[in-house]
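Researcher: Please predict.
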Amino acid sequence: MFKPNSGRKVDSSVWSYFKYEPATDKSRCTVILDGGHDSERRACEQQLSGKNATNLRNHLRSKHKTEFAELQSAEQRCKSLEADSRQQKLTVQVCLVSFAFIMVALCSRADHYIVQAQQKSAG
């Protein structure tokens, strides 16, 4: 996760492919390029102005299609997990509300039985 100077956390998955350099206000691509059989593997090193995640995504989409596909897949998995988490929270909330209604109903029944018992013992 990248934390810019403003103190705001940026949790975009795209930052796993870039390193921000505050001194130059540039984001450097760290994707490893496949140089073939004779070449050494090296990083892309392309520098993009600022730290805008959309610009970084656009660089991946146009220059590193495999990494962009990985990024999209990871983001989709995260969205799916977030949706599952929201559904679980909603289910828990519904259960708690249902439990509260059941408890109110049981307490009302208990009060009814207590009143009946008191009336029988008084009568």
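Model: The mean pLDDT is 81.
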